[in-house]
Amino acid sequence: MKLRSLFKFLSNDLAIDLGTANTLVYLKGRGVILDEPSVVAVRKDGKGAKVLAVGREAKEMFGKVPGNIEVIRPMKDGVIADFEITQAMLRHFIRKATRSSFISIKPRIIVAVPSGITQVEKKAVREAAEQAGASEVYLIEEPMAAAIGAGLPITEPTANMVVDIGGGTTEVAVISLAGIVFSKSVRVGGDKMDEAIMHYIRKKYNLMIGEPTAELIKHNVGTAYPSDQVETLEVNGLDTVMGIPKTIVVDSEEIRKSIFEQVDAIVAAVRIALERTPPELAAEIVNRGIVLTGGGAKLRRLDVLLREETGLPIVIADAPLITVAVGSGRALESLDMLKLISIR
After folding, report:
1. Chain centre to alpha carbon of residue 202
2. Which pLDDT tens digit goes with each residue over 278-291?
3. Which of 36, 44, 165, 291 registers the highest number of CB atoms within 10 A of its CB?
4. How many CA atoms lie within 13 A of 308 on its CB side?
């Protein structure tokens, strides 16, 4: 075996789903080994900023830190908003993913990015990964990774339609012959829903809640389509009038209405993709349907709403939260596929 081939064989190659809400890391030969919030806590003083915690530990600090500590989400709308903090976060996750190995060779890394990403944003992702310790960096579009992760036959001359709903973006794509025939990327996802819930609760109940509470509400009683059974949830927050803690009860129907605008934007993106798909492929989608991936695919009755709006079969991927990471990892396992689908 040649020395270069030996190095590649021994390296800890990684695939990273660098998401607005969560970062997942796939280690070649082992699968998804890390899934943590894309959150960093830093202490700021006269000398600059020092990273205190990353991932789950940092997220637990939301709303509980003194003035000299800031909890930062360095990814916004699926792209890097804070380069240095993203670099520090990536370095931490890469070390955590590979620390159990005796191999010290720098890994090749695939990073999944939104299909609507700009050249400047692509450069930022590459540089962040390189500075964090990558020997080579490949970029793959999230809907392509999602299709691979969902087990769709992307290399065949047939229509594969994917809707990947993440924290910062929703990616809608039609894929055939290992290429994206049409894609639509909208910067709407789980985060915008959380913001809408926070705004609604404050406006209606004069109650201020944080992002973690809004996310909890979305997961427990959030829904995209009306149901005969209305569910309720107790919510704790700060009364903005009295300035004291208060508890209220919200129900699934009012939360559905509070996130209507964000859900409608996702439905509109799907409609646009269907309208612009070539007729022959569109005819195949009628039979094959649409696959939902990403954390947003778990929003209750979203599949029912999309089925009502499009008249098409809607399938939720088996493990929607890790589909993009798994698809990126499968591309990492096959160099031929990686060369075929990676973007510059």
Report:
1. 27
2. 999 999 999 999 99
3. 165
4. 9
β-pairing, 160-165 vs 290-293, is: parallel
Of 241, 233, 310, which is closest to residue 271 (Cα–Cα)? 310
Indicate the residue type of 339.
K
- Which pLDDT score is estimated for 124? 93
Whole-angstrom Cα distance, residue 73 to residue 94? 18
Average pLDDT over residues 137-162: 96
Model pTM score = 0.91
Query: Do 30 and 103 contact (CB within 8 A), yes or no?
Result: no
- Residue 272 belongs to what H/E stretch? helix 260-275
Contact 328, 13 (CB under 8 A): no
153-156-158 Cα angle (round to 5): 90
Calpha distance 172→194 (Å, rounded): 21
- Taking the C-alpha atoms of residue 117 and residue 291, their distance in angstroms, rounded to an integer, is 22
Token code pair at residue 125: 């992702």
Position 289, amino acid: G
Q: Are 174 and 277 in contact (CB under 8 A)?
A: yes
What's the CA dihedral at 50, 191, 321, 17 to 10 degrees? Answer: -50
Domains of the chain: 39-72 (no CATH), 159-188+265-316 (3.30.420.40), 190-260 (3.90.640.10)
Rounded-to-integer distance, Cα 55 and Cα 51, Å: 11
Q: What are phi and psi of 102, to 5 degrees?
A: -80, -10
Cα-Cα end-to-end distance for the chain: 30
Laid out side by side, the sheet with 48-54 consists of 48-54, 40-45, 69-72
